[in-house]
């Protein structure tokens, strides 16, 4: 049974016996681990954690939810990325994380805690990151690259057929590998061994939406995506900032089938009910039916889901259920509310989410046709990974 963790007596400031790194991160081992290896900066870890502000307020806890969480270390705050690399499996450690290694003094992420933070973290498992593909020859767009008015640059690596190109709401299947501008690997379906499948108008990276519409089936193309077409100025938690580089191979695409009948809106579509659980970001959810699995997806895992989405006035705007075909996608390539929310789920679970506008498409979406404001989704997690 879940229990609210007690606030540490030393929550306000690191004690004298804490270790302090050059970055200013302080930590202290609470329970020694049984493992011998430590995670690398791209490895995925499974943890329990609780986080407090320095005045002793608990703002988030997987322990209180009784749900461990997994994530890649290159997709979280800098203090976690650095700190967990010092741990071994079975170890429990307390971290005193300065603001500049957390969310800052004035967080850009809505609902994020500001200032210095204190975390207790227990490491349960390490999943080694796959071997990274070779870096592209050009980390910046060459003069020969095609450039669009939005600033997207691309270069054909291998020609496809001479057929049609995807439309803005088509479902595409593609292999991709992505890097930061400094050459750090983000994610690769090539390494994972299974292509991603997603609707173009459900992807949060504008450069993907624009770029894939330039391609034909079988084509391989490299994209240099400016920050404005990536995750934007205020990226969701764990999303990279700055310019991005992606190699894409377009395998298949199909037009969006029109649903025969809309799925009726739930009775609580207009407002979050009292029995829903709300996270620090403002995301609310309620389990509709429990799952049979035990693992949760990480923030970069590919998932297979069925879903239906409504606006708060009860209008259905999208549904894989109505189309009769589930859809797969990487969790770090969709709206922030999905990235955060689906990580709370296990296989077989069905959950309802009330996603505020800042975690969806915004109050005034820049993407044509995207719904505005708070959105409600029913999501069934069918499968995690390949």
Chain-wise SSE layout:
Blueprint: E1 19-20, E2 26-31, E3 44-53, E4 58-61, H1 62-65, E5 69-72, H2 78-83, E6 92-97, E7 117-127, E8 146-147, E9 153-158, E10 171-180, E11 185-188, H3 189-192, E12 196-199, H4 206-212, E13 220-225, E14 244-254, E15 277-278, E16 284-289, E17 302-311, E18 316-319, H5 320-323, E19 327-330, H6 336-342, E20 350-355, E21 375-384
Antiparallel strand pairs: 1-2, 2-6, 3-4, 3-5, 3-7, 6-7, 8-9, 9-13, 10-11, 10-12, 10-14, 13-14, 15-16, 16-20, 17-18, 17-19, 17-21, 20-21
Give keywords:
Chitinase A, domain 3, 386 residues, globular, 21 strands, seven-stranded antiparallel β-sheet, 3 domains, mainly beta
What does this structure look like?
This protein is mainly beta and 386 residues long. The chain folds into three domains: 19-127, Roll (Chitinase A, domain 3), CATH 3.10.50.40; 146-254, Chitinase A, domain 3 (Roll); 277-384, Chitinase A, domain 3. Helices cover 8% and strands 33% of the residues. It has six helices and 21 strands. The protein has helices at residues 62-65, 78-83, 189-192, 206-212, 320-323, 336-342, and strands spanning 19-20, 26-31, 44-53, 58-61, 69-72, 92-97, 117-127, 146-147, 153-158, 171-180, 185-188, 196-199, 220-225, 244-254, 277-278, 284-289, 302-311, 316-319, 327-330, 350-355, 375-384. The strands form three sheets. Strands 1, 2, 3, 4, 5, 6 and 7 form a seven-stranded antiparallel sheet that branches. Strands 8, 9, 10, 11, 12, 13 and 14 form a seven-stranded antiparallel sheet that branches. Strands 15, 16, 17, 18, 19, 20 and 21 form a seven-stranded antiparallel sheet that branches. The chain is globular and about 65 Å long. The two termini are 32 Å apart.
